[in-house]
Amino acid sequence: MRNWVVAGLILAAGVVMVGTDVLAAEHEPPAARLDYEITRDGGAIGRQVFTFDTDGAQMSVRHQTEIDVRIAFIRVYAYRQEAVETWRDGRLVAVTANTDDDGDIRRLQVRADAGGLVIDGSAHQGSAMAEALPNSYWNVDTVRAAHLIDIEDGTPVAQRLELAGAEMVQAAGQTVQATRYRMVDADGALKRELWYDSRGLLVRIRVKGSDGSIIEWGLSALEPWSDRVG
Description:
Layout: E1 15-16, E2 33-40, E3 43-55, E4 58-71, E5 74-88, E6 91-101, E7 104-113, E8 116-121, E9 125-128, E10 133-134, E11 148-149, E12 158-171, E13 174-184, E14 190-197, E15 202-208, E16 214-223, H1 225-229
Parallel strand pairs: 1-12, 10-11
Antiparallel strand pairs: 2-3, 2-16, 3-4, 4-5, 5-6, 6-7, 7-8, 8-9, 12-13, 13-14, 14-15, 15-16
């Protein structure tokens, strides 16, 4: 998202420089579906939904984002994104994403090969280490990853992580303890804040828009795995 409303808002590219361990979604995600309400200065502007499906050693993560910003009932900004991540044996093996950022169309295709990951994005084509992760943030390993891939267009951008401590936050109708992380750029400017609970579940994201507005994702509902299989 590049315009005045929510510049850098959704899934803006970033690399967290905090280690080089092999990181992956090595465990079953804590829910089958995660729903987030997106707000701007406290007013609802959209939602993001993650849906998880497993088939043996393979897991697919589908996410859909819709944002509409209106002023005096007139839509001044619209954002749509649909993406699918494919994981196998705890490793990222493919990503497909299509984004319409208020008329600016972006795309991304990622596939695994013997040397790592091959990136074909609308703004970047190249390769990445096999341990690289898309910056979709549902995976708590994102905050420990040494390399991230912008899920809009494939662009890598260097950032670093600061641990901000534990806080009590609202998530899906409950008060939970979560760890807050601050992602900053090379000059120390805050880019976004992320909150994960004790299960590694993403419960909140906060970003400051270029117009000074505060954009937040808050976990509004989740579907447990027990509901999916029961």
